[in-house]
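Deviation from plan, reported transparently: magnesium ion complex.
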Amino acid sequence: MSATPEKLVEMRDVKLQFADKVILNGVNFSIQSQEILVIMGLSGGGKSTLLSILMGLLKPNAGSVLFKEEDLGKLSRPKLNEVRAHIGMVYQNAALISSMNARENISLPLKELSDKNDKEIDAIVDQKLELVGLKDARDKLPSELSGGMQKRVGLARALALEPELVLFDEPTAGLDPINGKLIDDLIVQLRDKQKVTAIVVTHEMDSAFAVATRMAFLHEGKIILEGTPEEFRHSDNPIVSKFLSSYSDHEHTKE
Ligand SMILES: Nc1ncnc2c1ncn2[C@@H]1O[C@H](COP(=O)(O)OP(=O)(O)OP(=O)(O)O)[C@@H](O)[C@H]1O
Ligand SMILES: [Mg+2]
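Because the crystal trials were delayed, the predicted structure below was used instead.
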């Protein structure tokens, strides 16, 4: 009703600790529809934890998470599942079920959360497999797929329910440059063609700058910088600029 763009997701002063170890110490940010927010930060800094909280899989110790203005912490279990059906998650380690082939893994959310029949489900599975370039892997078990292929099956599964928001945890890590680019292009294409909003956690700087409309840097439990890719490139924040330059040094010394 208002002219301001809708906030799809918002974290307000989120705190999380495991035992006495503080991981998130007051995280604030929001995302509008069709943004691609890239989250960066040091390993172990809490990025995957933050995504789990957004999915409603982990409950913060304090603060709130809002999806379309609804506070996830205040929703009943069925309501929370309804919200979750609008959020797809591509896990860092693919997280496929090892006894199920690619087709069965991808059809799982459709069987659990939609009323589609087997024929419709089959068609969606094929379409998603094609989208991630894995048509031939349909009947393969995760153990018969490479790490990168497993990741793409995980992506196909995350997209099965046509989510509005997709959370990507290191989507291109471990992929060769061609398949990495395929995933980057897919993220941008999902936004342009299907109006998907995305949060991408990544260590791959080429990928980060290829997809981001906005960036955020998580450090010692807080977002210490948030801005456009251009602002990140030129940031004089010592931690951020050191992080970015060590990645570009690494790129140069890799040859
Ligand atoms: N279920 C858990 N129980 C206890 N500690 C946990 C749990 N999950 C994560 N942690 C700890 O929380 C911290 C943040 O972990 P997290 O996986 O969110 O980091 P990350 O930023 O995603 O790191 P990476 O870049 O290596 O993936 C780490 O110290 C980790 O050991
Ligand atoms: Mg992680």
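The radius of gyration is 18 Å. We consider this an acceptable substitute for the interim report.
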